[in-house]
Write a structure and sequence with these properties.
Elements: E1 2-5, E2 14-17
Antiparallel strand pairs: 1-2
Length: about 55
């Protein structure tokens, strides 16, 4: 599966291939078709410091 991964505080998110999760006892795995990463402060933005408010 693809995942947005934060490797260290203040670093940008990176898209990485991760192993599919496996449910343990009393757990379930759900399939998420789409998700949104909320805006982050400029210093830790997932898109290299570009936010909607400063794109012109």
């Amino acid at each position: 599966m693809r995942a947005a991964v934060l490797t260290e505080f203040g670093a940008p998110l990176t898209a990485q291939e991760m192993p599919d999760p496996v449910a343990g006892g009393g757990e379930v795995v759900v399939q998420v078709l789409a998700a949104c990463v909320p805006r982050m402060p400029r210093k830790s933005s997932a898109v290299g410091g570009t936010t909607r408010s400063n794109r012109r």
